[in-house]
Amino acid sequence: MRRFLSSSSPRSFDANDKDDATKTARKQRRECWSCFEKSDDDDESVVAAYFCRKCDKITHPDAIKRRSHYALLNVPERFSIDSKAMELSMKNLQKMLHPDKFSSGGASSSSSASGGGGGDDDDGDKEREYSEEISARVNEAYGKLRDPLSRAKYLFGLKSGAAYDAEEKEGEETREEVPPELLFLVMEVREAIEDADGDAEELMKLKGENEERMEEAKRRVGEAFDEDAVFDEDKARKAIVELTYFERIRKELIERL
After folding, report:
1. What is the CATH number of the domain that holds 204?
2. Is the N or the C terminus of the chain less surrounded, counting Cβ atoms within 10 Å?
3. 236 near 224, Cβ under 8 Å?
4. pLDDT in tens, 113-157
5. Does a structural domain hold residue 6?
6. What is the pLDDT of residues 41-74, one digit of tens each?
């Protein structure tokens, strides 16, 4: 029997879906592809997300399509998260889902314990294929959530129902969204970077000042997502815009150093 992570997990993400046919399809995807056991729609544990409780086969990738990155990694749906705990969760999942565990006749595949024949080999091939796809989803989720800015934009999409990136064009926010005082500050900082003319000491000073601004911007992002009783879309958007500009400055300073 495989070892699983804690069964407690945040709610999975489901888009608002009132179409009966789609709901029926969702229920069908919760059915095990191997033993046809139907999972409880309310069971959102890590075990149920990745393996059939009855036959222990890895789940079909379609069954997790609607799960958020947070649910996939079994971490709370917040901006402020425990980075070390999330990394540990990702590593545990990758060990549990590693394709080599599901190769034909692999020791970790539940079918191998029964000593089955060709059908079991086919199941092993399927499990390996599914594990590769699911592992890629886990990696994608971790990559998105480990970076504060991409995490903020992703969470904005979950909370508002509209992707933050849809408001951007080639990585630039529309001018109407950006407060004039922020634009003025960014202009001043970039002029200071130019005036430094490659002086490492001066650039390091500017980098430190920008890191302080980033920490303050992240605090405001966290406040907008995690502390307010009611999600304020405008407040969250403004905080993300600030963080976006300061992140660009950070990258520019790193390139100059």
Report:
1. 1.20.1280
2. N
3. yes
4. 334 444 566 777 889 999 999 999 999 999 999 999 999 999 999
5. no
6. 555 566 667 888 888 899 899 888 888 999 999 9
